């Protein structure tokens, strides 16, 4: 991790902020997800199992940090943050299924299809995606209805075939293939980057200028996030990750580490970090949380 | 089929209208779905394979018929019709997968996971759902942005855990169980009825009075549709259906036919039809297509 990355975290202040927001988004999701005693009970219980109680909530934190930069109203930031977390949760449930990554472990617990069954996991993912759009289409969420439609459109594009689902499809076809760094980057821009970018844009849905700067930040930090993920897959153990370590390397998937080597992958992550920070240059202290989050994302590994 | 049901179809006028709309929605979907030569090609090709070229497009027809009643602008009716057809197509792709109904045949062709593979089918369904919300969240679709948000909210609720996905979950748990008619009806109200109702409401997003009448019509015709489906499963052959006949009966699923018997199931369908027609009583000739569609849905079987 670069010195600059370290200097951007003014712990404990940032960690307190992050912890507060993590607890808050958990409460928001608690309220948003249908109660487990409402029919169909198994589906609702499995949706709550999959979307609550875990993860660093990086996407929600990015949304809240962007919301602070743009003075977005709290309830709109909550809707944006929960919508991206619901989409993320759905993608994990489907990604863990036997026909995809076939992973038994997620956030230190049995993955949804292991705890329930494949059919339930399929429906859980489907229903979590619908719920994300239900949250963002709540009547009178924004005073400016056009702005609300724009949020919905950002999320739909980020989730779809030229966003997250498209990235997953490229990933499927990449197994066992020798990708160039450019091809790998295209895949991750869609697979992980699109939703991370959406998280920032939903939080920053204020002025155009802010959206443009936030977008450049989000693009770079989204890619850095994936590079770090690939490094973690090699360096961390299963307990720390809360998911099976060495999975990508073992399944012959191209990663930043296999393409660039560990040392260059770390250099590349640092470059992306620097570019993300540079994009925030026009802003003063109001972009502090976004800077700190960039450092936080980097600090996950080294 | 009752005499009244027959008298409501003034063929060939209705059939010409229906055919025109079927061709039209196919063209709209052709334009809406990403081209197969845009990356990720396999995913886009599989999405087009699953959403184009088949089906009676009952949901689109209901949307267009409701749009005529409420003088909804054409491009809004197109968006509503394609959004419900995309959600319907996604549900069929996921429903056919091995962990669900495990059906190899759909609309007379190999189902998506047979033509491609399970992982692709999973992503096709996911991306078709996102695309439905992308279509409805197009910038400036409606002059009244609040109305557009209301359409998005109707679709999200109809697709989610207390709509279509919820109905699928109840269906999963119902296999091998003795359901009452009321329980069966609750299941189908969610599984099939919610999206059929959404199709009508998206078309009829005009005045509140019209939405309320259209909603009662849609509720009844949605259930009638399912009763007919259960009758067809027993009476029709695989070729006529374009999907595996006798599937529900064979898999020990409760149906209207197993609960009520064939004759009473037909009576029940007729009662639901009459109730749907009655709900349209306040309207004159402008509700003609909705009446004709009700007859068309009834005529599918007997």
Verbal overview:
Two copies of one chain form a homodimer. Chain A has 302 residues and is mainly α. Chain A has a single domain, classed as Farnesyl Diphosphate Synthase. Helices cover 71% and strands 1% of the residues of chain A. Chain A is built from 16 helices and two strands. Chain A has a two-stranded antiparallel ribbon with strand order 1-2. The N and C termini of chain A lie close together (6 Å). The mean pLDDT of chain A is 89. At the A-B interface, α3, α7, α8 and α9 of A face α3, α7, α8 and α9 of B.
Looking at CATH, which topology of chain A would you report?
Answer: Farnesyl Diphosphate Synthase
The succession of helices and strands of chain A, N to C, reads HHHHHEEHHHHHHHHHHH
**Name of the CATH architecture of chain A:** Orthogonal Bundle
Radius of gyration of chain A from CA coordinates? 18 Å
Structural class of chain A: mainly alpha
End-to-end C-alpha gap of chain A = 6 Å
Helix fraction of chain A by DSSP (H/I, runs of at least 4): over 70%
Largest interface: A-B, 56 and 56 residues
Strand proportion of chain A, as a percent range, falls in under 5%
| Overall pLDDT metric of chain A | 89
List the SSEs and their pairings:
2 copies of one chain form a homodimer.
Chain A (H helix, E strand, L loop, with lengths): L2 H5 L5 H20 L8 H11 L6 H13 L3 H22 L9 E2 L2 E2 L1 H4 L2 H19 L8 H15 L4 H11 L6 H23 L4 H28 L2 H4 L5 H4 L5 H5 L1 H18 L8 H12 L3
Antiparallel strand pairs in A: 1-2
Helix pairs in contact in A: 2-5, 3-7, 4-5, 4-10, 4-16, 5-7, 5-10, 8-10, 9-10, 10-11, 11-15, 15-16
């Amino acid at each position: 991790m670069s010195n600059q990355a370290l200097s951007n975290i003014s712990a404990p202040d940032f960690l307190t902020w992050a912890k507060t927001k993590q607890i808050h988004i958990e409460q928001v999701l608690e309220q948003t997800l249908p109660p487990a005693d409402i029919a169909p009970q198994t589906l609702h219980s499995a949706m709550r199992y999959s979307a609550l109680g875990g993860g660093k909530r990086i996407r929600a934190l990015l949304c809240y940090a962007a919301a602070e930069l743009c003075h977005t109203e709290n309830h709109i930031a909550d809707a944006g943050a929960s919508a991206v977390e619901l989409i993320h949760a759905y993608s994990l449930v489907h990604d863990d299924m036997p026909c995809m990554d076939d992973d038994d472990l997620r956030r230190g617990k049995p993955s949804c299809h292991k705890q329930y069954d494949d059919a339930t996991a399929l429906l859980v993912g489907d229903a979590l995606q619908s719920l994300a759009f239900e949250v963002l289409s709540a009547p009178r969420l924004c005073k400016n209805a056009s702005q609300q439609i724009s949020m919905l459109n950002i999320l739909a594009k980020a989730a779809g075939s030229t966003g997250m689902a498209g990235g997953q499809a490229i990933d499927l076809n990449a197994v066992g293939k020798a990708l160039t760094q450019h091809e790998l980057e295209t895949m991750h821009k869609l697979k992980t980057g699109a939703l991370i970018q959406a998280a920032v844009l939903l939080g920053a849905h204020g002025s155009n200028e802010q959206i443009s700067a936030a977008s450049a930040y989000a693009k770079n930090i989204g890619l850095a996030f994936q590079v770090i993920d690939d490094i973690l897959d090699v360096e961390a153990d299963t307990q720390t990750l809360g998911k099976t370590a060495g999975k990508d390397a073992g399944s012959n998937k191209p990663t930043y580490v296999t393409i660039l080597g560990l040392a260059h992958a770390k250099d590349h992550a640092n470059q992306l970090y620097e570019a993300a920070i540079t994009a925030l240059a026009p802003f003063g202290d109001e972009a502090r949380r976004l800077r700190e989050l960039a450092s936080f994302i980097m600090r996950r590994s080294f």
